[in-house]
Amino acid sequence: MGFKDVFKKSFLEGFTSMDISAGRIMATFLVTCALACYVFLIYRLVTRKSFYSKGFNVSLAALSVITAAIILAMQSNLVISLGMVGALSIVRFRTAIKDPMDLVFLFWSISVGIICGAGLYEVALLTCLVVTVLILVLENIPASRAPMMLVVSLSDSDKEAQILDIVKKYSRFFKVKSRNLMGNGMDMVVEVKVKEESAFVKEVSAVEQVQSASLIAHDGEVTF
Question: What is the structure's pLDDT at 222?
């Protein structure tokens, strides 16, 4: 018997088909559904988007159940497991995930399905509790004041120095991001960190030759 035969025999013996009982299937789906609903509620609780996507949240819960079913099927037979690997390897997901927190919940949902499908219900429950505590604790840690964008439209570009003097008065940190000259006028974007936002914008707007002044919060994706 050669090495190839020994390896093949040991591999097949290590991957014995197992008969999954109806009780095991029901228990897996019940626990998975319960934890999937838990993930659904936590996502609805912590999401801070202006437009809450219920469809994405529902897909998180469904994904856990589907993943658990796939794991159960893969445990039942070697041929099925190899077929699943081949079928899933050609799937390409092209939906862009812009929010990192959505990506966290996506992997969380998949992991719940995998762990429950493997029958490790205690591990799945403990994982949900630990992830929930971690998210809630880190979400409530005070963050430093995020920078904002001051967008000023000037009819006279010579007023730039006066605008920057006001910026220095309200903010220790500032950085001119862009200057767009148009004839004698200019549009200027300045990155600032200010506490008295209303007073700051009013003082900038009160400068002569200022046509408009806006203070805009950004998330790092907007470019000027």
Answer: 42
